[in-house]
Design goal:
The chain has eleven helices and 28 strands. The protein has 547 residues and is an alpha/beta fold. It starts with a strand and ends with a strand. The structure holds alpha-D-galactopyranose.
């Protein structure tokens, strides 16, 4: 007989355990089976441009066409940016007798022969014709953020509440690929965001089923209600992002009132810090510290590079807020550095962690990358003076006494091989970004407590897990023979669960692995990880490997 936890991983119950002896499940401490090493790539965070920071509610077809053209012409599209996201101000709250959204035909005219003015499908077709993707914006409440306009008059009823299915179907039928859903109206009505955003995700799912068109989901309630505890896979969303803080900057629109506003580096750092929720960021679900202000008035070139480095090391969405038609060469080089973008987009999909700090403001951040032994590392100096910052391989989960190669991503130069550690002088309010390639440290392998793999309606738990570090990387080895992801809840030490996506592995016999970061804060072997299958055919978890 064996103790395992029930389907919500909350209480203990007794079940009979039939021993099974066929598989070569690893024992604690033993090396993991070679076939468990195959990593499954997860969807990367989105990359693109959004209209709000530089155009506020002055957005129209002309603005959008210019930005889309610029994204292609200036090389950003080639570097991986693809979304052109229309934010607030595209719709002024009018609906027809059937409740369909009605837009200003002058702002959104026909763009090609045979098109009707006032049809948002026109601008989507234009964006698609350039090989880009199109994003749109609404609010989860009855009203939207136009109740608090930055420019121009107040507009009411600019939200989708009461029309979720109708509006999201409309967005998908227009051809949009991405939708950002704000929370001004929801907040005003004191709605529960976990409930509303789940309902919206279901409406998106229905729209996708009807149109066969994917609509990427961006949640924007500014981190007010701890979305990292409920947003991953909310309402069945396959992949999504959620804002973790307020806006870095209020819009700076040239020639409009407030055109003298400046973005601030303090704002960048503050949003970065508020966006660190590594336990929720995995398998295609991402914290969103806001659209970037790289290239906007107020930041120096060096600060732009730090900003880009911070977003990349935390695998944040790379959504540019600057006017793409007037980027300086330096800004463009910052936004398109392929090695920095590769850190952001790495297929492990993990958030960077603070792995060392020295006094106040000298920090080392590290993001595990998909190439075994690779870590992106950011040496960040928040102080007023230049300072030396050292990174020890052992802080990165690499074999401590070994040689590792170091590459600087901004100067794009190999710096050579170093034993055990590397030090660099970092200027005040600046950062050095590296990729360090060394030998992986040992992981500890665990097989499920029940000796069996989880199936539909059953849980699988790992009860006596120890870790070298509090915030530990955990590799989950599993099989999924479907051609769509399966989802499971993971509860660590009885805390709020997070939902993990298990992408197809090819067959029941092909083991794949995804990585997560878990807070293993109990002494010794006292940590408990419990997976519950959410729906469908369940999933098979073979083993976990813990840092
Ligand atoms: C909120 C969001 C911003 C932007 C504006 C539009 O403030 O956080 O990103 O969408 O609304 O009004």
């Amino acid at each position: 007989m064996q103790m395992v936890q029930d389907s919500k991983c909350a209480r203990l119950k007794l079940v009979f355990f039939v021993a099974f002896a066929v598989t070569i499940l690893a024992l604690p401490g033993a090396p993991s089976p070679a076939n468990a090493q195959r990593q499954i790539a997860v969807p990367p965070p989105p990359m693109g441009w959004a209209s709000w920071n530089s155009f506020s509610n002055t957005v129209d077809a002309k603005v959008i066409m210019n930005q889309a053209r610029a994204m292609v012409a200036n090389g950003m599209a080639k570097a991986g940016y693809q979304y052109i996201n229309i934010d607030e101000g595209w719709w002024l709250g009018q609906r027809d007798a059937q409740g369909n959204i009605v837009v200003d035909a002058k702002a959104w005219p026909a763009l090609a022969p045979g098109e009707q003015a006032g049809d948002m499908a026109n601008i989507v077709r234009y964006i698609h014709s350039l090989g880009l993707k199109a994003g749109i914006y609404t609010d989860a409440g009855m009203d939207g953020c136009s109740l608090f306009p930055d420019l121009g008059p107040v507009y009411q009823h600019v939200g989708s509440e009461g029309h979720y299915e109708q509006d999201f179907l409309q967005f998908a039928m227009w051809g949009f690929d991405y939708v950002k859903v704000d929370w001004c109206g929801g907040d005003k009505e004191k709605l529960d965001p976990a409930v509303q955003y789940a309902e919206i995700a279901r409406a998106i799912g229905k729209a996708e089923a009807v149109t066969g068109h994917r609509l990427y989901f961006s949640i924007c309630e500014w981190g007010n209600n701890s979305p990292w505890t409920w947003a991953p896979n909310v309402g069945g969303a396959t992949a999504d992002i959620w804002r973790t803080s307020g806006d870095i900057v209020v819009p700076i629109v040239p020639h409009e009132k407030h055109s003298g506003r400046l973005a601030s580096f303090t704002g960048v750092l503050s949003n970065y810090d508020q966006g660190i929720h590594p336990e929720a960021e995995h398998t295609g679900f991402y914290n969103d510290p806001d659209m970037m202000v790289v290239g906007m008035p107020g930041l120096t070139d060096a600060q732009n590079r730090v900003h880009m480095s911070l977003w990349a090391i935390s695998a944040a969405p790379l959504l540019v807020g600057a006017d793409l038609t007037s980027l300086s060469d330096d800004t463009l080089a910052t936004l398109t550095n392929p090695e920095v973008i590769a850190v952001d987009q790495d297929s492990l999909g993990l958030q960077g962690l603070k792995v060392a700090s020295y006094g106040d403001g000298l920090e080392v951040w590290s993001k595990a990358l998909s190439t075994p032994g690779d870590r992106a590392v950011l040496l960040l100096n928040r102080t007023g003076d230049p300072a030396a910052i050292t990174i020890h391989w052992s802080d990165l989960g690499l074999a401590g006494v070994s040689s590792a190669s170091v590459r600087n991503l901004w100067i794009r130069k190999d710096l050579g091989s170093f034993d055990s550690s590397y030090s660099a002088t970092v200027q005040s309010n600046d950062a050095v970004m590296l990729v360090i390639h060394g030998s992986e440290g040992k992981l500890k392998s665990y097989s499920p407590d029940a000796g069996d793999r989880v199936h539909k309606d059953e849980d699988v738990s790992f009860n006596k897990v120890s870790s070298r570090v509090r915030l530990a990387r955990v590799r989950i080895s599993y099989t999924n023979a479907d051609n769509a992801p399966r989802f499971a809840e993971l509860r660590v030490n009885g805390r709020t669960a997070t939902r993990i996506a298990f992408y197809p592995t090819g067959s029941e016999n092909t083991v794949g692995a995804v990585w997560i970061e878990a807070l293993l804060d109990r002494e010794g072997a006292g940590n408990v990880l419990c997976f519950s299958s959410i729906s469908g055919p369940g999933l098979n978890i073979e083993s976990i490997d813990v840092e």
